[in-house]
Amino acid sequence: MSEDDQLIAELEIQNLTPEEQQNVLNGLRLEIGEALVEGFTEAQLVEYQAIIDDDHEVINAWLVANVPDYKSTIAYQQLAEGYDLDPEKVSPDKVYAYMAWVEKNSPELAETVARVKAKIKENIDSYK
Amino acid sequence: MSEQEPPFTNSTESPHEELNELELIYKELEQLDKQQAILNERRAQKIAEIRRNEAFGKYDQHVPNKDEDTHQSYLNQRPSNGVLRDGEGFRAAASGQYASESSYVAQNGTAQEHYDTLNGIENTSFEAPKFDSLSLTQLAKEAAQANRVNDIAGVDEIRAIAEHAITERITRPGYETKDADAEQKAELTRFDDMVEWLSEQHDEVAEPSEEAMAPTPESPAAQEVTTEDTEEAVVDSEEAPVVTPDTPAATVLTAADSPVSTPRLLHENGASPTTIPSAHPLSITVPSTHSEPQSKQNPDTIVVQERTTNPADAEYIPMDYDSNQRVLMDGKDVFIEAYSVDAQGHKTYKLGTGEYVDESAVEITYFSDLESESAPTTEADVEKRTLTERTKAWFGKNKESHKEKFRPSYWNARWSGLKYRVMNHGVTEEMSDLEVDKKRNGNRRKIIIGAAAIGVLAIGAGIFAVSEMTENFNPDSSTASESPDVSNTDGGGTGATETPEVPEAPEIPPVETGPIDPGFTPTQGEGGYQLLGGLGIDPSKWDGIEQQLKDLSPSEFYLMDDGHYGINYPNRPLSAPVRAVIDSVR
Lengths: 128, 586
Description:
The structure holds two protein chains of two kinds. Chain A is an all-alpha fold.
């Protein structure tokens, strides 16, 4: 089951149209992002922005400093697979860093995600 | 003052032309009269029809008596009606004739409730299956389920739907067949076989024993079969010989020759117990019992045997079965007893618990080498293996959706389309273009952070798990599929142009293994001066090394408004290279 499918099941929004489901899921991501951003310093946000904007220097430096053996991780190797065939050449370094950075910089990640999910689900249930 | 024009002088038509126009109008009126007459006639017919139907009670409203709005409440007040239990049997109260148990139970609820009652299942979230949308394999399961509870009407209904589906498939435009009738008959026979086999299987393997669930030294092959170490044999159900204990490799079975009533299980010669559907015209791959060195086995291989088919079955194979695979299913250690493949190639697994699971609903990873020599021996090893498999499986399913968020097309479509209102969260009409861009970019960043958070949470520590294949994985390889260069890529959605090659990462001094001086862990709000002061170093030396530190480890420092560099991460030790530079100015 894909991540989206799992979230759809978790939030019990199978009855919505695919478009509505995507809006709910993006709303969930937005709210989680909003909640996590509150805990970041301006400098952290600047760094993250640089990572997602494909600033290779920042990405490389962050990875070297924080996950020196990132190229040996399963996650990185999975992301690097098929790179040759990707016409847009989305960098696995960036995708890896975008996830690993959040993991490293969010001490209350699980609690925050759970709290936002519960809130969204409560909102959805109230409309049923 | 201008001259007044006489009325109608603007007409340029001759009297002859005016006459023609009048004739046309009259003709039109005549036609309309005819149409009106026809409609009046129809109206009269309809009124007559309604009155006739009314006279015969067609539109009568049937209002239930008070407190009789369900069949059961109706029966409660009429004990002489309905089906009643009579000892072990059931009888119609009014006629005294024998009735089915399903008729008795159906009075009290839905057919599903009937099944659940019989099986002692509490099923509070049941939704009636939409048979029309099910594949033939799924229909067979439903029919088998109905069969087991003697719901003959249910079996007939499902079979009719299956027959209809087969007919539709065979008769659809563009489908070529030499003999549609024969093909339909053959497929329906396969369907019936499948239902029968599934019904019997449930009876045979109602409760898997402990022995069946756990691998034993006596049956090592039961869980360890890969395409590499398995010699496979294509078995034709009508021609192949029966297996004997002497059969060394390919275990071969034919239903036609079998002295054992089918279905049956193969356990001879230590073979993986393989269940063969009765009288099934399929070719089946049966695993060899040869024990080739397990080192050949790739732990990453998903161990599902290749199925082979007769050409006649190439388009639609009702089912084939593999047996007894121990796997991780959504992280849980479960036992797959068998699987079927429907016409669309979708697999459905039958678990040792008797449950059925569609492959699309779960993440499955095989660890058939768990019992091999190279298998982990400690709990930690098993946990690590589990983490590895989970991480691989997760990325296999979700990496594209995460990569997608770095493709420019993704964001362009969402920002421009009103339907993606979340992307425009907080954007108002009063905002300038600059403000709108800023808002959208902020939303984009939050959504990306949220997506990353959900992802890393799903794989947990898997994001940092190091591959066991590290020795074979050369990160500096020129093969981009394994280790692509991060340069010249743009997926940030910013429309940024290509960027130059990424500079080589700075050399990192060896990390010392001893404890880190607590002074190297900045506290909240602490800057470079305070940090050096805390370490007993002249704070002014910060000005001399801050640029070097930033260059060395850009992520750990940021440029402040006053032009100096601040420290990014409070409560986290500075990296070893940074500490080395600071130590050098002591």
